[in-house]
Amino acid sequence: MDSAIANAFNITVQCTKVELPLCYEGICNAENDTATIAVSLKRIPALIADSTSGKVQAIWYLPDRPDVQTREEVDLEMALLYQELMNTVDIYTLDLRGTGNSTALSCNASDGSLLQANVFARNNGDINLRDVQACAQHLQDLGYTNLRAFSLASAARDIEKVVADTQTDLQVIIYALGYGTLVAQQLMQREASQIVGCVLDGALGMPAGDTGSASLSLSEVEAAAYELSKSAKDFGEVANGFIAWCQADTSCSTMFSGATPTTMINTTLFEVYDRLDGDATSMCAAILSDVDASGSINSATASVTPPSFVLRQLMAQMMESSTLRAFIPVLTYRFHRCGSEDLVVLSNFVNTTLKTLHGSDTPDLLYAIQAFSELWERPTANQTELTNRFTDSAISDGREYTQLLSYCLFTGDSSPACVNATTFEHASTATSRNGATLSYEHDAIDVTTNVIPSGASILLLSSGLDPISPPKYAAALFDSLQGVNKAHLVAPNGTHGVVQSAMLSNGTGCGRQVLASYVRHSGNLSAYDATCMDEVLPPSLAITNISTLLVLGVSDAYDGVLDIGSESDGSIGASGSSNSPAGSPSSGSSIDDLNKQISALESSRRRYKMALIIVGSALAALLVGGVVLLFWRHHRKKQLEYEEVLLRHMRGDADNELELMHSIYLLSSSPSSNGERGRDASRQ
Question: Which residue ranges does the record annotate as region Disordered (predicted)?
Answer without folding.
Answer: 572-592
